[in-house]
Amino acid sequence: MIREINKFIVRTPLHKTAIELKAKKIWKGFSKENSKILDNRTIYSISPYKTGTTFLAGCFDYSISKHEPIHYASVKKMEEDFDGFFIRRLNSLNLKLESSGFWSAYVDQLANHHIGKDLTYICILRKPSSWVTSVVNHWYQIKRYRQNYFWTNELFWKKIVGVDLSNFYEYSEEQQNDIISKMLDFYMSFTKKTGNLKHVHYVWIHDMTNFLPTLEQLMDEKSKPESSKQNKGLVKHFVYENKEIDNEYASLVESLSNK
Q: Which InterPro entries does this UniProt record tie to the protein (predicted)?
């Protein structure tokens, strides 16, 4: 019964109100400590959505490793007051590993934060053309759920990246190309900015399993990749190919890895 009620709410205008009320409750329960880390020094996987963050987080016990925890509450507060919220959130979650796509929008803040600048980060690498293909197809699936308030589209893709993905398939080819261009600009800019982080590990999406021993040492934990899963799309209505941007990305990654 509760599941059916929630399903109904998600498809009505009550959806936005419900998640906002939940977020306010979360904020009130957060740690007040914002000047120092109380326990675990969280390692952050900061690559954009659809780069393998689900799999990486799932390789470790849920009590210490999470994928996009308190998602809406986090994106909302980070945009309002990054410095006033970042360490409070870290202390409240007390994780050893977090994989969240929204961190890709805050690399500058992480690199300059008095505590964040000394933390460890993971940048999962994926060819831009493959990434665009995955993101666009992901939104085709989301639309099928008839969700009333596509808040990730409103707060991240529209507000930060500057694109409307929820209506991608309804746009003309010219408009779609403009969206893709803005997505690529964001993706390349994010990747370049990771070079400003002091402690960052670069790992290709197809090589994440081989990276786990290194991550185990960093976390002092044992991974269980067999219990994790990849959030693969069920359908592929759209395919984007651009060898030029893929080659440019490969060169950028090589220069960053050799720093």
A: P-loop_NTPase (IPR027417)
